[in-house]
Design a protein that fits this description.
By secondary structure, the chain is an alpha+beta fold. About 25% of the residues lie in helices and about 15% in strands. The strands form 2 sheets. The protein has a two-stranded antiparallel ribbon with strand order 1-2. Strands 3-4 form a two-stranded antiparallel ribbon.
Length: about 90
């Protein structure tokens, strides 16, 4: 009986550790948020004549986006308004 309890405890501990390892590897869902990046700190889409990341010319440029945690974009406040899920 003691052996069965020990085996059950070992199996349970192993399962818990495996689940914790998987959760640690999980990355939060991200979304593009337009108009929240400061000049030169966008992730991409800064418009014609730009090569992409880090090329926005002004703070909170409406066609430049930054990756943010999913569900938070429209709650980000800037001097030019809240973040947007579409270019402005």
């Amino acid at each position: 009986m003691k052996f069965a309890n020990a085996a059950l405890a070992a199996t349970l501990a192993s399962s818990l550790l495996s689940g914790a390892a998987l959760a640690a590897d999980a990355k939060p869902a991200m979304e593009k948020c337009y108009g929240v990046a400061t000049a030169g700190h966008n992730d991409c889409a800064a418009g014609a004549g730009t090569s992409c990341a880090g090329t926005s010319k002004v703070d909170y440029q409406g066609n430049a986006w930054k990756l943010v945690k999913a569900g938070t974009c429209v709650t980000i406040k800037t001097p030019k308004g809240n973040g947007s899920l579409t270019p402005r």
